[in-house]
Amino acid sequence: MFKGLGNIAGMMKQFSEMQGKMQEMQEKLGQLRFEGSAGGGMVNVEANGQQKILNCKIDQTLFDSGDKEMIEDLLIAATNQALDKAREGAAEEMAQITGGMNIPGLEDALSKFNPNA
C-alpha cells in the first residue's frame, strides 16, 4: 500500500536539489557581464546573464550630430548584441551545471525562474 512513497520522497529530494541549483545558477548569471557595441564603440550596452540591461553609454559626438535615427539604430544594435552574448553565456553556464546534458524544458524553466518573486 505504501510502496510508492519512497519513490515520491526521492523525487521530492531531487526536485529540491534542482531548485537549489536553479537558484545558484540565477545568482551566478546575475553576476556575469556581457557588452554589446555599435558604431565603432560609440554606443555600448551592458547586460547580465539574466538578460537585464545594466548600463548604456552613448558617445557625446552622437548627440552633437543630432541624428536621432542613427542613435536609435545604434542603440538597438548594441542592445541586441549584448543580449545575444548574455543568452550564449547563460547557455554555456547551463551546460556546465547540467554536465552538457540536454534536459528538455530546463532552459525555458530557468528563463522564467525569478528568485526575487
UniProtKB/TrEMBL annotation:
Keyword match Calcium = no
Determine the domain of life of the protein's source. Answer: Bacteria
Q: Which residues form a coiled coil?
A: 8-35
Instruction: Keyword check for DNA-binding, yes or no.
Output: yes
Query: May I have one GO cellular component term?
Result: cytosol
For this chain, the family text in UniProt reads:
Belongs to the YbaB/EbfC family.
NCBIfam families in alphabetical order: DNA_YbaB_EbfC
| Function text | Binds to DNA and alters its conformation. May be involved in regulation of gene expression, nucleoid organization and DNA protection.
Q: How does it assemble?
A: Homodimer.
The name this protein carries in UniProt is Nucleoid-associated protein Enr17x_28010
